[in-house]
Amino acid sequence: MFTAVSLGIFEGKRPSGVGVPQLLDACVSLGLLEKRGREYFNTSVADTYLRRASPWSLTGYIWYSDVAVFRLWANLENAILSGSNQWTQTFGESGRAIRESVAVSEEFMRGMHGIGMTTSPAVVQAFDLSSYRCLLDLGGATGHFAVAARRRYPALRAIVFDVPSVVQMAAKEAHDGIEFIAGDFCTDPLPPADLIALGRVLHHRSEQLIVELLSRVYERLPAGGGLLVIERIVDDVSGGSVDAHMHSLNMLVCTDGGRERTFEEYEALLEQAGFSDIRVCVTSTSLDVVMATKPT
How far is residue 92's CA from residue 84's CA, in Å, rounded to a whole number? Predict the structure, then answer.
């Protein structure tokens, strides 16, 4: 699939090459293409998720998985034994620069947008947010969650706060009623809001960095303000989903101290930062939601 996306197969391209027919037939076996006579056509799944022009396209994340994650996982054993990310081991001295450039690339943002388009509508329904007036989405990228929130709550004002390069990319698209502000949410003053969202922000941080960020959020919120933590929640009782555990290993090879966590672990971190009334909602998508409140 990685190679088919890279070669533009799902965009209708048919490059010359001895192995192309084998690749096309392999995509048929995976349910990504249909063969009619000598012609190949996208299945509905491929048309939705594997075409760049689709609003739900995952090609950006597939690109990231191809050029980075797939190669990092070749050093999984070393990551497990050392407990450290594998960028330098995989890419040499240029590993750090590659890591930083990939994280803010337009392709990566497009991939995150595609995932967000499939998860945000369910995430925003997890809890009743009708009492809040302003949502601040920290690290909100293209604004997919803010868009979903405003569709469900049209009176809700929404702000996306992300690094300048990401805001510049996101601002190319029209986002009615959503304000984009550039900055570093770890160091810069946060805009005022009574509801703050952290979507896929905590999972690639260590416990110490999480508490530091949660404490900043706590201080910025007014009394009674809410916080949404949007992550994969590991279920230790049932063994958890394959998806959550595989992504936890992914955090091991990609980040410094990041991993997927249980609700109880997030609950403890949130309580340490001062939050109360902490509850969880497991959604039908790959992401779940933990909500917490700043006491009045």
Answer: 15
- Centroid of chain to Cα 211: 20
- Residues marked active site are found at 203
Amino acid of residue 112: M
Classify 115-293 by CATH class.
alpha beta
- Phi and psi at 172, nearest 5°, equal -70, -25
Residue 275, SS3? coil
Which 8-state DSSP code applies to residue 137?
E
Q: Would you kindly state where each structural domain of the chain is located, as residue ranges?
A: 1-54, 115-293
Lookup: tokens for 32:
């990504």
Residue found by looking up tokens 């971190």 in the block: 269
The CA-to-CA distance between both ends of the chain, in Å, stands at: 51
What kind of fold does domain 1-54 have according to CATH?
Arc Repressor Mutant, subunit A (1.10.10)
**With a threshold of 0.70, does the pTM exceed it?**
yes
Look at residues 21, 28, 103, 15 and name the one whose alpha carbon lies nearest to residue 61.
103
Amino acid identity of 33? L
How many degrees, rounded to 5, is the angle at CA 287 between CA 148 and CA 294? 75
Q: Which residue has the tokens 């009492």?
A: 131
pLDDT digits (tens, 9 = 90+) for 211-241: 999 999 999 999 999 999 999 999 876 666 8
Measuring CA to CA, how many Å separate 231 from each of 234, 253, 282, 288?
9, 18, 10, 5
Tokens of 291: 């909500």
Instruction: Tell me the C-alpha distance between 11 and 50, whole Å.
Output: 8
